[in-house]
Specification:
The protein is about 50% helix and about 5% strand. The protein is mostly helical and about 230 residues long. A two-stranded antiparallel ribbon has the order 1-2.
């Protein structure tokens, strides 16, 4: 396979596009800014503003971008979430990482920014970490980047997420979902004895799937609106 040419500020300005490479799962890969090239893989083109004049500076963090690359593959998201959870990431971390990958968002802070939200907000029997991870993924997808922007799309996504999650699983708080308090010795014993990690795994996968379905529905509505 032919190596994609180097990404340079000159190419951005002259072509108005950058060749990005996709993984086998067709997830957008981050730019390798330090070496000023893309990794090996399949090629696709995504348009970006020509204002990214310092994209190739050594050591620069890969810039956040929002990309719409076809329909989100819900089954792949389900498998990826399960994989991350089985490899040792917790609920919020797994959901945020899987949904963000599938929706085309990359950030150096993932999945670390979700760690404190795991286990019902750090074992306080608070909101389910899987929900929190999904909500953070919505922030990457539709969250504001300035005070003059609307919150309505993100709020709507969160509201739909919680409604559907509670409809499927009954509750949205960790303590209610597991019927134990993970911040107590008794709660930890119950968690182990009743193998509640499997319950958490199901909740984690469920939250990721619901979030992905909501993002895909909104993107499809956007496409339909533009086409009409």
């Amino acid at each position: 396979m032919t190596q994609t040419p180097a990404i340079t500020p000159q190419r951005v300005r002259s072509e108005g596009s950058i060749h990005l490479l996709l993984s086998e799962a067709f997830l957008l890969s981050p730019w390798d800014c330090s070496e000023n090239r893309c990794p090996k893989g399949s090629t696709a083109v995504i348009y970006v503003p020509a204002l990214l004049q310092d994209i190739s500076k050594p050591g620069r963090r890969c810039p956040q971008r929002r990309a719409h690359w076809g329909p989100m593959n819900i089954k792949k998201i389900e498998r990826r979430t399960a994989q991350l959870y089985d490899e040792g990431l917790y609920c919020a971390e797994s959901v945020l990482q899987a949904v963000s990958e599938a929706s085309g968002h990359r950030c150096d802070s993932l999945p670390g920014i979700a760690t404190g939200f795991c286990s019902g907000m750090a074992r306080t029997a608070g909101p389910c970490g899987a929900l929190s991870g999904a909500i953070m993924a919505f922030g990457l997808e539709s969250g504001r980047t300035g005070s003059g922007q609307s919150v309505e799309r993100t709020y709507s996504q969160v509201q739909r997420l919680i409604d559907e999650f509670e409809n499927r699983f009954g509750f949205s708080n960790c303590g209610d979902l597991l019927n134990c308090h993970l911040g107590t010795v008794a709660g930890q014993e119950r968690f182990r004895e009743q193998r509640l990690a499997e319950r958490c795994r199901s909740l984690t996968i469920g939250a990721a799937v619901i979030a992905a379905e909501i993002i895909e529905a909104d993107r499809s509505a956007d496409d339909a609106s533009k086409a009409s």
